[in-house]
Amino acid sequence: xxxxxxxxxxxxxxxxxxxxxxxxxxxxxxxxxxxxxxxxxxxxxxxxxxxxxxxxxxxxxxxxxxxxxxxxx
Length: 73
Description:
The protein is mainly alpha-helical. The chain has one domain. The protein is built from two helices and two strands; from the N terminus they run ααββ. It has a two-stranded antiparallel ribbon with strand order 1-2.
C-alpha cells in the first residue's frame, strides 16, 4: 500500500527525472492527446442556420444577362 502511495505522489507532483521512461511516456501521451483530442469548449459546433441568398442583378436594361444566386458570407 505504501508503494502505491509513493507512485501516486510521484505522478501527482511529477518527481520523475527527465530522461526516465516515465517522463518519455508522459511526453508521448501529452503529444498524442493534443493531436487527437478535440477540445469542444475551444471550437464550438457550427449551427445549422440557413444560408441567406440574394440575386445579383444588372443595373442596365439587358434582359439576356443570367442571374446567379450567391451565398452571403
